[in-house]
From TrEMBL, chain B:
One of its GO terms (molecular function) is ATP binding. InterPro entries: AAA+_ATPase (IPR003593), ABC_AA/LPS_Transport (IPR051120), ABC_transporter-like_ATP-bd (IPR003439), ABC_transporter-like_CS (IPR017871), ABC_transptr_urea_ATP-bd_UrtD (IPR017781), BCA_ABC_TP_C (IPR032823), P-loop_NTPase (IPR027417). Residues 6-245 form the ABC transporter domain. This is Urea ABC transporter ATP-binding protein UrtD. It comes from the Bacteria. GO terms for cellular component: plasma membrane. The gene is urtD. Pfam families: ABC_tran (PF00005), BCA_ABC_TP_C (PF12399).
Length: 397, 253
């Protein structure tokens, strides 16, 4: 017993050290992104890429949320566009109201609106807006999640339901000209914040820096949630929810919690993206966009956290570069990418690096592969048979 | 000593006109080990489903430790002290045996504790002890996915015990195990019976003989007869519906 305790404490010490190293690396990357990356890009005459990088880093925050709910917990949401848009609209409404008092945002006049709709009122306040960006998506997700998970709808039914919800929200935002300018969306680039135009370089730099910092925060939150006991419980939900229930856990609450947190992350991402792209429209609730979010995570690697960020950056930069060169082929490329990931790299880029990459590199430099199993096992026909026929049997995800 | 831990009165479960359980009465003393046998479709698994809250009874009621379980869902009943092992082993495949046991062992199964709690020393010690009991010490930190069928069975039984329930429900624990593993599981169950009440559902008559003190035979959703292994084996009704004629069934002989 003494041995166990002492070995655990040394393990704990090692973990602390590893965490410190990880924090150091993350900090270094953040500093690189905030101070050095923009200078490099501007120096290379690619200043507009700084803005793109900022936007994609914002999208990466949403991808973290998808990784939490899909990668770790195994619940595929195809409706995160809702939460992204709710966050984006919250900020855009606040920015639209930065006007001399008594004046209405311009887009209202063609529709003959003379009085601000009631739900715009609270968005005069910055603290409320900041609260709304995170918590409106969170609360909507919690309600939706509770209703769905309580009835034990799972798997593909949940995915379809999120798509249906997405269409409902899309149609609402798209159709209500008099409330939120319908299909035209809300423009934020000409608005002002603290007396400065939002699209000015100074304000954009602030938003860029904020994005990096919040991405680091999102990363830390995801790491914390997926480590230790809560992380094991997320895996337990994914592996066998029924077992969990019979062990005395209520999986509904865990699922609602993770879904709500991932929605909050998507809300933050939506606000930051809106601030840097200058507009939010109902297109953020386009079905394709919500599916794209899942593709980013799949490409980077499910349940890896870093993979979600990496996948988002890779896919989106590929998208912007390819569509500059060959505007027609991007969608083919995206489809191909998804197929390749599903068929060849089911673990995504990071999953491949973790599992096979090391071995592959080693075999390339001609070092002997470490022995994986007993040679006799490899030749045993019974083992081969079992491997062939039973290895892929896994419970439904 | 005759305190009842589980009492079931006039229980009927009706699936679209099919009576899986039919006016069933059953009771279990505290600390008892009971084996339930019966032909396929006799309602054995439905019986466990009702006790654990997975299936709602059409009529009748279940009383556990003097409290009715009516209207309670699975996790609430589990927290009252009912542990269940499934027919096929259900463990968390992407977690290690140690983590599997730790999750079951955890006393505070709410969300708050999941986020901010950490396993206590005492829990870590319980888990280590359990790993020894189910003889998985050497594989404690491998993914459970890599365990053999028998090891998964033992791990799941370990998880039940970690929950420290008052009543263990064990559904066909030796299905698909080798003779040696079967005997191990039997010994494990007998050891557990010293401090728990246990209901075992089993088909393997040799195994039943190894562990049984009192046997209940289910047939068409009700109790056909109850008694010691010998009584049951010699009951003509049981031979008729389940065991078969003695001449052509060496196990029953």
């Amino acid at each position: 017993m003494v041995d166990v305790v002492s070995s655990q404490s040394t393990k704990f010490g090692g973990r602390k050290q590893k965490l410190l190293i990880e924090a150091g690396i993350v900090g270094a990357i953040a500093i690189l992104l905030i101070f050095i990356m923009p200078a490099i890009l501007v120096g290379a005459g690619q200043a507009f890429r700084v803005n793109l990088l900022g936007r994609y880093l914002a999208l990466a925050i949403a991808a973290l949320g998808i990784d939490l709910i899909w990668g770790f917990t195994g619940i595929l949401s195809l409706g995160h566009g809702i939460f992204f848009a709710l966050g984006g609209y919250s900020l855009a409404m606040f920015l639209s109201l930065q006007l001399p008092s008594g004046q209405l945002p311009d887009f209202f006049s063609p529709y003959g609106v003379t009085e601000l709709p009631f739900f715009w009122q609270p968005f005069y306040s910055l603290p409320f807006t900041l609260f709304a960006i995170v918590f409106i998506p969170t609360i909507v997700a919690a309600i939706l999640g509770y209703l769905v998970f309580r009835n034990r709808l799972r798997g593909v039914y949940f995915s379809i339901l999120t798509q249906a919800a997405l269409i409902v929200f899309f149609n609402f935002f798209n159709g209500q000209q008099k409330l939120i300018n319908g299909t035209n969306g809300l423009k934020t680039d000409t608005a002002t914040i603290f007396g400065q135009t939002v699209s000015s370089p100074q304000v954009q730099t602030v938003f860029y820096t904020l994005t990096v910092l919040l991405l680091v925060g999102g990363y830390a939150l995801s790491r914390w949630l997926t480590s230790g006991r809560s992380g094991r419980l997320l895996v337990a939900v994914r592996d066998d929810e029924t077992r969990m229930r019979f062990s005395g856990y209520d999986p509904t609450l865990f699922k609602v919690l993770v879904f709500a947190i991932s929605a909050g992350l998507a809300g933050i991402a939506g606000a930051l993206y809106t601030a840097q792209s200058g507009i939010i429209t109902p297109q953020a609730m386009n079905i394709a966009f919500s599916i794209e979010m899942v593709i980013w995570v799949a490409v980077g690697g499910r349940a890896t956290i870093v993979g979600a960020i990496l996948g988002t950056l890779i896919v989106n930069f590929a998208k912007s570069i390819l569509s500059e060169q060959f505007p027609q082929i991007w969608y083919f490329f995206q489809g191909a990418l998804f197929l390749i990931v599903v068929t060849v790299l089911p673990g995504g880029i990071l999953g491949w690096l973790r599992d096979d990459g090391v071995r592959w590199v080693r075999s390339q430099v001609n070092k002997r592969r470490p022995l994986q199993t007993y040679p006799s096992l490899e030749e045993d026909p019974d083992v081969q048979y079992e491997r062939k026929n039973l290895a892929n049997r896994k419970p439904d995800r | 000593m005759n305190e009842k831990i589980l009492q079931i009165e006039n229980l009927t479960v009706n699936f679209d006109g099919f009576r899986a359980l039919n006016d069933l009465n059953f009771s279990l003393d505290k600390g008892e080990l009971r084996v339930i046998i019966g032909p396929n479709g006799a309602g054995k698994t439905t019986f466990l489903d009702v006790i654990t809250g997975k299936t709602k009874p059409t009529t009748g009621q279940v009383t556990f430790k003097g409290k009715p379980t009516q209207g309670k869902v699975e996790y609430e009943i589990a927290r009252m002290g009912v542990g269940r092992k499934f027919q096929t082993p259900r463990v968390y495949l992407n977690l290690t045996p140690r983590e599997n046991l730790e999750l079951s062992c955890n006393r505070h199964k709410n969300v708050w504790n999941a986020l901010f709690g950490a396993p206590s020393r005492a829990e870590a010690r319980t888990v280590t002890g359990l790993l020894e009991t189910i003889r998985l010490e050497t594989k404690a930190d491998l993914k459970a996915d890599l365990l053999s069928h028998g090891e998964k069975q033992r791990l799941e039984i370990g998880m039940l015990v970690a929950q420290s329930p008052d009543l263990l429900l064990v559904d066909e624990p030796v299905a698909g195990l080798t003779d040696e593993e079967t005997e191990n599981v039997g010994t494990l169950l007998l050891a557990l019976a010293e401090s728990h009440s246990i209901i075992v559902i089993e088909h393997d008559m040799e195994f039943v003989r190894q562990i049984a003190r009192k046997v209940t035979v289910l047939h068409q959703g009700s109790v056909l007869c109850e008694g010691s292994m010998d009584d049951v084996q010699n009951d003509p009704r049981v031979i008729e519906v389940y065991l078969g004629k003695q001449e052509d069934n060496p196990v029953a002989a």
